[in-house]
Amino acid sequence: MRPTEKYDQNGISGERVISNGFCMPSLIMKKRDGGKLTRNEIEYFIRQVVKGHVQEGQLGAMLMAMFIRSLDNEETTNLTRAMTHSGDVLRWPDEWKGSVVDKHSTGGVGDKVSLVLAPALAACGVKVPMVSGRGLGHTGGTLDKLESIPGFNVSLSHEAMLQVMKNVGCCIVGQTSNLVPADKILYATRDVTSTTENIGLITSSIISKKVAESLDALVLDVKIGKGAFLKDEQSARELATRMVKAGNGSGVKTVALLTDMDSPLGHMVGNALEVAESIHCLHGDGPQDLTDLVIRLGGQLLFKAGHASGLQEAYNIINGTLHNGTAIAKFAAMMKAQGVKADLADRLCEKGVDVFEILPRAKHSTQIKSEMSGYVHDIDAMKCAVVTGKLGAGRTKAGEAISFGVGLHLSTHVGKHVEKDTTWMTVYHNEEKLPDMFVSMLEDALNVRPEPVKTAHKGTRVVDVIT
Ligand code: URA
């Protein structure tokens, strides 16, 4: 179809809107019929989306065409770039060049890595402007976890972020309204048109937001397993490879770790409980799988940012911060800089303090016992997540209130031995009686067998590294 009329008035949207020789119906048709969109065409599409010149029907049709026909690497990189520049791009002082880093996780159960990683990296001397999300789904997101700390403010302007980064070295904040506005529009339509689970669209959505932070290096934690949105290794590998290409193609040194998410990470699931476990980890007393993941993700970033000459050295540096008091000190400083009262932040970070004097905890607890003796072969992360969500830790629609104090404390791990009739999990809940349905779901989550576990991830969750 060749455009014959040339008009593009504000507020006018529709099939006759033609600009720079492009028009939406012809772009939709091209993608629908399996064509490859050029960089200019993708940039036009995103510009029109942000201006509000694309009709809902056209947007849904284009997303469905992209979903069904797929985007190749080049289209994905071009879409990522166009989305990145659809709004503000954060800017940092020149002297930070090479040292601005961040992590993205595809999300898992008990995944509190960001809370430990940001301050540990700041203690290593790099800058971490961590822009995070809220949880939609079973468990809270990083921002929800942090908001369980009284006073913690996740809504910082760019200027305020810059100040915290100057003074502390890291901050963890929500997305400002004009960071990648195209993603907000596309994501809302993807959500209601069944076009979310597409590698090209997921990649451009995630990577554009990270590139808009003007990072020098990015590490991706791509989770695989029962508690992850990608259940199999092949899809995780494909997404990781595409995201690494798009990140590198956008000028950010990017690496991905494929990590196991069959069972919950660490021992705690739930907002305030995960803050408590993060504080333990920042004191060097965290569970091994969480500590290892922080070291491996952080090590990759330190190495990429040139703060270590090899990976082992990078791992040693970040591990050092968890044991010499510098990572926990950064966490205290970040809390104070983001609104938490100084005496409260200091008390939370004092070694040996019961943090639940300060953090919210649910009113009641119930112990779940093992029905047999043997070795733990599995703790189904999804079943744990579903119960945690039903207790009120997560939300099913944006804006819903959540309960900070509810959640699970697992006192065993895959590979460990448990005795019949002993507690392997404590559930924290607000209702007086934990519904029987939740008890049986949690009992079902534990898989105990007489023989020892051969394939337990011996202390590390990392399955592979994609560069
Ligand atoms: N997270 C995002 O930000 N975007 C997606 O498309 C999927 C997960």
How is the largest sheet built, in terms of strand order?
3-6-7-15
Number of domains: 3
Outline type: globular
Q: What's the helix count?
A: 17
Summing up helix and strand content along with how strands pair, one would put the structural category as: alpha+beta
| Unreliable stretches covering 5 or more consecutive residues | 1-16
Q: Please identify the oligomeric state.
A: single chain
Write the layout of secondary structure elements.
Elements: E1 18-19, E2 22-23, H1 24-32, H2 39-51, H3 56-69, H4 73-84, E3 101-105, H5 113-123, E4 128-132, H6 142-147, H7 158-167, E5 170-174, H8 181-192, H9 199-211, E6 217-224, H10 233-249, E7 253-260, E8 268-269, H11 271-282, H12 288-304, H13 311-323, H14 326-337, H15 342-348, E9 364-369, E10 374-379, H16 381-391, E11 407-410, E12 417-418, E13 423-429, H17 436-445, E14 446-449, E15 462-466
Helix pairs in contact: 1-3, 2-4, 2-8, 4-9, 4-10, 5-11, 5-12, 5-14, 9-10, 12-13, 14-15, 16-17
Bound molecules: uracil.
